[in-house]
Hints:
This protein is mainly α.
Amino acid sequence: MTKAFKTKDVLAAEQDLRSRTLAHMPQRLERLLYLASTRDYNTGVYRHDGLAVRFSEQAACEALADCHREAFTELLDCPLEELVKQLERYAAGTRSRSDFIAAWRELEPYRVAVPSGTDSLSSELLFSNLKVALAILQNRPADPDSPGPGASPRLLLVQ
């Protein structure tokens, strides 16, 4: 749906979603995975109670779908090194970086994060980029200055 044909409610819901929720997710990967998680995998319908209350279920669904497609395109355009950094930051929020990499390589959970209607070439390009980024991440030593989840930042002792 082009902007010229979007209803005011959908545009307002998109703006609300961007300013209240997505603005707190600086990483493209994080935004893509969050937006994919709002979609019912059985029906393809997006749900967000807060948006639905403020606007309507239909406007919320369309706004989420539009933002999901936008997040996918942004991640598809992401340079490989940036994609590796995003994966690294995302993995840092898990209990074990090696378990994260193993699960993502085996289960490929990112495959369900593709917006419906996406052409297969774009999907496969993103999957390929993620596989390469995972391989790079797997072979890159963990950043020793990056605290693990729940860890306190390292204190620097100055003499």
